[in-house]
C-alpha cells in the first residue's frame, strides 16, 4: 500500500475547509490503495515553525512514507530544508491558498510569499483546490483537484426550518471576518419579518472578537435567526436538505465547498462575486452572484428568492444539475493518489 505523508500545521482536526479537505481524502485513500499519515508543524507564530523542519522530515521517514503532500498553509516552513536536500522523498504541493497566505498582515504576506515560492521550486506537482486559484498562480506543474460535493453518506433530519415563514435561508461557515456574516445579517434585517428565517451553522469561536459582533447582531434580530453552532457532517447534510436557499457572502473562498454541497441538495446559492463562486454559480440561473459590498443588492437577491417559489424552484433544479458535474470526494481522492503514483514512477 502506498504510504503518503500529508504535512500540515497544528491540529489537522480543526474545522476549516482546508483541514476538512485533508480528512476526507485521508478517509477515502484506503479505497485507492493508499494510506495518508498526518505530520504537523507546531502552531507557533510565524516564522518559528521553520525550526521544526528537521523533526517533520524525520517523522516522515519514521512512518515509512514514500511521498509528501505539502499543505500550502506551511509550505514556506519546509523550504530551507528542501533547498538543503534534506527531504528523503518526492514532494507534491496541495494548495488551498496562494503564496503569502490568506488574511495575513501585510508584513507577514511579504515575508511568507517568497518562502512559499521557494518551497514550490522543489515540488513535482501542485494540486490546486480550485480553478480560480489555479488561474491566479504563476507557478508551473498545476493540476486542479477540487473538493468533493458529497457532504455525508447520511443526514440527520432537522424538521421545519422555515419556522412559520415563507422560506429558510442557510449559511454554513465559521464566524470570521472573511465570511462576512455581518453583511449578511444587515442584508437580512432589511427583509420583511415574515419572509424568511435565517439559520447559521459554524464555529462561533473561530474569531472571538468578530463572533461577539455577530452574536450581538443576531440577538437584535430575535427569533428570525437560529444559531446551530458547530455541526457534524450529518447535521449539516440535514440542514441542506431542509433549507430553501444557501447564502454566504464570503470575502474570499479558494473553492467554496459549502456552495457545491448546497447545490447538490438543490439549493440556489447567493454570495459576493469574489473567489471561486463565479466558477460554480451562474448568476440568475443557479443562484445570485452579487457585487461585493452591495448590501442592498444582497438583500434584494435574498428577497427575490424567498418571495418567489417558482423562481426558487427553477434555480433549485439548475443548481442540482450543475452539481452533477462536480467531483465526489472519492473522485478527488482517486485523482490525488493517482497523481502521487505517477510522480513516483
The overall strand count is 12
Question: Main β-sheet: number of strands, strand sense, barrel status?
Answer: 6 strands, parallel
CATH architecture of the largest domain: 3-Layer(aba) Sandwich
Tally of individual helices: 13
Class based on secondary structure composition and strand pairing: alpha/beta
Would you list the SSEs in sequence order as H and E?
EHEHEHEHEHEEHEHEHEHEHEHHH
Domains counted in the coordinates: how many? 2
For this structure, what is the CATH homologous superfamily of the largest domain?
Glycogen Phosphorylase B
- Give the terminus-to-terminus CA distance: 15 Å
The low-pLDDT segments are: none
Topology:
Elements: E1 2-9, H1 17-28, E2 34-41, H2 53-62, E3 67-71, H3 75-83, E4 91-95, H4 106-120, E5 126-128, H5 131-136, E6 142-144, E7 167-172, H6 181-189, E8 196-201, H7 208-220, E9 225-229, H8 233-242, E10 245-247, H9 257-264, E11 269-272, H10 277-280, E12 287-290, H11 295-307, H12 309-323, H13 329-344
Parallel strand pairs: 1-2, 1-3, 3-4, 4-5, 5-6, 7-8, 7-10, 8-9, 10-11, 11-12
Amino acid at each position: 500500500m502506498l504510504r503518503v505523508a500529508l504535512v500540515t500545521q497544528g491540529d489537522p482536526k480543526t474545522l476549516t475547509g482546508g483541514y476538512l479537505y485533508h480528512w476526507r481524502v485521508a478517509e477515502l485513500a484506503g479505497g485507492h490503495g493508499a494510506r495518508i499519515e498526518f505530520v504537523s508543524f507546531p502552531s507557533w507564530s510565524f516564522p518559528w515553525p521553520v525550526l521544526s523542519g528537521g523533526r517533520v522530515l524525520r517523522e516522515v521517514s519514521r512512518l515509512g512514507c514514500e511521498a509528501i503532500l505539502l499543505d500550502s498553509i506551511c509550505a514556506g516552513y519546509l523550504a530551507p530544508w528542501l533547498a538543503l536536500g534534506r527531504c528523503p522523498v518526492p514532494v507534491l504541493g496541495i494548495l488551498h491558498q496562494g503564496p503569502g497566505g490568506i488574511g495575513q498582515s501585510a508584513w507577514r504576506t511579504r515575508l511568507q510569499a517568497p518562502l512559499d515560492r521557494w518551497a514550490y521550486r522543489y515540488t513535482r506537482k501542485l494540486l490546486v483546490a480550485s480553478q480560480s486559484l489555479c488561474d491566479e498562480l504563476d507557478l508551473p506543474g498545476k493540476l486542479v483537484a477540487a473538493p468533493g460535493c458529497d457532504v455525508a453518506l447520511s443526514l440527520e433530519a432537522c424538521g421545519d426550518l422555515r419556522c412559520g415563514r415563507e422560506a429558510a435561508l442557510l449559511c454554513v461557515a465559521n464566524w470570521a471576518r472573511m465570511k462576512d456574516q455581518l453583511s449578511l445579517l444587515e442584508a437580512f434585517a432589511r427583509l420583511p419579518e415574515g419572509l424568511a428565517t435565517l439559520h447559521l451553522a459554524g464555529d462561533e469561536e473561530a474569531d472571538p472578537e468578530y463572533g461577539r459582533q455577530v452574536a450581538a447582531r443576531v440577538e437584535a434580530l430575535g427569533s428570525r435567526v437560529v444559531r446551530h453552532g458547530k455541526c457534524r457532517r450529518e447535521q449539516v447534510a440535514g440542514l441542506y436538505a431542509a433549507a430553501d436557499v444557501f447564502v454566504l457572502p464570503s470575502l474570499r473562498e479558494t473553492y467554496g465547498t459549502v456552495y457545491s454541497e448546497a447545490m447538490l441538495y438543490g439549493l440556489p446559492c447567493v454570495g459576493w462575486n469574489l473567489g471561486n463562486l463565479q466558477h460554480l454559480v451562474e448568476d440568475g440561473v443557479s443562484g445570485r452572484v452579487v457585487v461585493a459590498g452591495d448590501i442592498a443588492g444582497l438583500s434584494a437577491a435574498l428577497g427575490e428568492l424567498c418571495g418567489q417559489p417558482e423562481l426558487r424552484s427553477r434555480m433549485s433544479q439548475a443548481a442540482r444539475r450543475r452539481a452533477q458535474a462536480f467531483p465526489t470526494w472519492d473522485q478527488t481522492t482517486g485523482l490525488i493518489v493517482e497523481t502521487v503514483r505517477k510522480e513516483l514512477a
